[in-house]
Amino acid sequence: MTNPQLYTIIALAVYALAMALIGCISYGKSKTLDGFLIGGRNIGAWVTAFAYGTTYFSAVVFVGYAGQHGWNIGIGAIWIGIGNAVLGCLLSWLLFANRTRKMTKKLEARTMPDYFGKRYNSKGMKILAAIIIFVFLVPYSAAVYKGLGSLFSAVFPGVETWVWMLIIAALTAIYLVAGGYIATAYTDLIQGIIMIVGVVCLIVAVLSHDAVGGLGGFIENLRNFQSLPNDPNPITGAQLTNLFGGSAFKFLCVNIMLTSFGTWGLPQMIGKFYAIKDTAAIKRGTVISTLFCIIIGCGAYLIGSTSRLILGGQLPAGGVDSVIPSLLMEVLGGGTAGIILLAVIMILLLSASMSTLEAVVLTSASAVAVDLIPALRKRETKPETQMLLTRILCLVFVACSFIFATQNIPIIVSLMSFSWGVVSGCFIGPYIWGLFSKKITKIGACAGILSGLLTVGGATLVISLNSGFSAAAAKSPEMGVAAMAISLIIVPLVSAFTKNKKADCERVDELFECYKEN
């Protein structure tokens, strides 16, 4: 066993014990359904802010997005990190956090489908939303597995990738099933601290590499970069140093919109606002979460933009998904300090992945146990039964996503983009308009969900029939952005031509009184 492997195993063991301990401690606070799903609506600013940020950024951001876009675009890719921090985090907190907390508390809604069902008085919408979440978040979580598995395989080349995926799945299942949202929130706080330390250390290590030349020489070396003669996709130094992405400007804008505005409709992100305890915590959480996203998001893409210099312009055998793993081994593979830092970075990426995975799993399991099954049954389901079913379904969802991840699907970034676009495209319109307008009707909200689903589904079907699914997956960012835009337009448009019943209008008027409360 080499030193990098030994240090990594020791770090993993310590990390696993800490996560399991948090799960056990949190068990006593998660015996009620409210406690298990939303922490009793009593989670503080720091914990919620880090929970939001760590759910936002998984290993896919580092291994997939930062590796691919840093390699193909250069320093212009950092705009994705800036967009994520400003649009996906800051603006989301400012616009939606307080309204979501007050509205869901008034409705006694614990999940996104529950919010739709009670806000629009529609059992059908609740069922449809639950199905969409459960079906389309499986590939999302699979992308998380694959992003982390490919990195661990670079450090442990003799171990199959599925072994690491299984370890990730088992560890996530243990503390999630034991402690629910409280356990995930407090582990997110620890994971977030690890991520900040790891990213800052990695930025210093990468910029200090001889090929990069420090912060002062970085831009100059990148500007003078020349592709290898056998490079199938040559790129110029002018492209890599173009602040606005150069020829990739349109592609850059689409990805900024998808990964930033997409958070506005993702249930695993919005769910953090259900649990925060008060308005004061929201104000502090807004600042903390935004700073976290700036450090992690911009840091990841900055690291990715150095990849061509560090790897000498040679794309690794595994393609763009292997760019960051190869970069890490090149920068941190030698010397005791580098080996220790590599172990820290591995824990960083494990933390990033598990925080995202746990949020997706809890969202999906609750969608079925709390929303779908009770809605389909004719008699009421007891809270104790829902609790047990949610825990069981957490295990089932982890298993399903693990199996999906073990399939040979190399398009890690497109896989995540596809799931992100479908789910957010369906929910963003009904969710946002439901918070701000009394005039939105049940039919308008339903039309918003269906429009998002049909936009992505229809485009995927047409492109797949003509050019294959890989071509459709490559267009997933554009489809996701289109679905979100259409959903936001369709909801008020259809509502303008339809009406709610008088009783529903009175109920909504009373509901909006919650914004006058503290």
What keyword list fits this structure?
mainly alpha; 518 residues; 78% helix; Sodium/glucose cotransporter; 0% strand
Overview of the structural elements:
With 518 residues, this protein is mainly α. The chain has one domain (3-411): Sodium/glucose cotransporter (Up-down Bundle), CATH 1.20.1730. The chain contains 22 helices and no strands. The chain has helices at residues 3-26, 33-38, 45-56, 59-72, 78-107, 112-119, 123-155, 161-207, 214-223, 237-240, 249-261, 267-275, 279-305, 307-310, 323-332, 336-376, 383-405, 412-436, 442-467, 469-474, 476-496, 502-511. Helix 3 packs antiparallel against helix 12 and helix 3 runs parallel beside helix 13. The longest helix has 47 residues, at 161-207. The protein is globular, with a radius of gyration of 22 Å. The termini are far apart. The mean pLDDT is 82.
List the helices and strands and how they pair.
Blueprint: H1 3-26, H2 33-38, H3 45-56, H4 59-72, H5 78-107, H6 112-119, H7 123-155, H8 161-207, H9 214-223, H10 237-240, H11 249-261, H12 267-275, H13 279-305, H14 307-310, H15 323-332, H16 336-376, H17 383-405, H18 412-436, H19 442-467, H20 469-474, H21 476-496, H22 502-511
